[in-house]
Write a structure and sequence with these properties.
The chain is α+β, with helices and mostly antiparallel strands. The chain has six helices and four strands.
C-alpha cells in the first residue's frame, strides 16, 4: 500500500503549528523528531488522526511523530516543505531540573546498571534449577561431583552481586 507522503508531510506540519513553529527536524528508525518553538500551537488530536501517523510523543520542546519503517520517505517530504537553512535537531537551552527528571535519571542509571546482568542472572538460575531437579529426582546424589560443578556454575552468576 503506497502512502501519499507529501500529503502526510503537509498535514503533520500544519498540525505542529506550521513551518514557523518548527526550529529543527530529524528522524530515527520510526519517528520524525521535531524541535518546536511554541508547544501551545501543536494540535495533538489532529496530529494523532492523520492517516499514516501511528502515534505522537511529546517531551519538553520536542514532538516525536511515529510513522513506522517508512519514516525516511516521510522525512524527505517534510524536509522539502521546510526552509533550506533548517538546522539538525538539537534541544534549545538546558532542560529544567524537575523532580520527575531527577527520578527518570535515577531510574535510567539503575536500568543501565542492571540490564546487562539480566542474562547472567537468568542463566545462573537455570543452571541452579537443573541441579536442583537432578538432585530431587534422584539422578544425582547429594555431594556428587557433577552436582557440585553445576552448583558452582550456577552460583558464579550471583557471586559478584551483593545480595546477602
Amino acid at each position: 500500500m503506497a502512502k501519499n507522503y507529501a500529503a502526510l508531510a503537509r498535514s503533520v506540519i500544519a498540525a505542529l503549528g506550521g513551518v514557523d513553529n518548527i526550529s529543527a527536524v530529524t528522524h530515527c528508525m520510526t519517528r520524525l523528531r521535531f524541535v518546536i518553538k511554541d508547544d501551545q500551537l501543536i494540535d495533538s488530536p489532529t496530529l494523532k488522526t492523520i492517516p499514516g501517523v501511528l502515534g505522537v510523543v511529546r517531551s519538553d520542546n520536542q514532538c516525536q511523530v511515529i510513522i513506522g519503517n517508512t519514516v525516511s520517505q516521510a522525512f524527505q517530504e517534510v524536509v522539502s516543505l521546510l526552509p533550506g537553512d533548517m538546522q539538525p535537531a538539537q534541544p534549545v537551552g538546558k532542560p529544567k531540573l524537575t523532580l520527575r527528571r531527577i527520578g527518570a535519571g535515577i531510574l535510567d542509571a539503575l536500568i543501565g546498571t542492571m540490564s546487562p546482568l539480566i542474562p547472567a542472572i537468568i542463566g545462573g538460575s537455570m543452571v541452579k534449577l537443573l541441579a536442583m531437579i537432578l538432585e530431587m529426582s534422584g539422578v544425582l546424589t547429594k555431594g556428587s561431583p557433577t552436582l557440585t560443578i553445576l552448583n558452582v556454575i550456577g552460583d558464579g552468576a550471583f557471586f559478584f552481586l551483593p545480595l546477602n
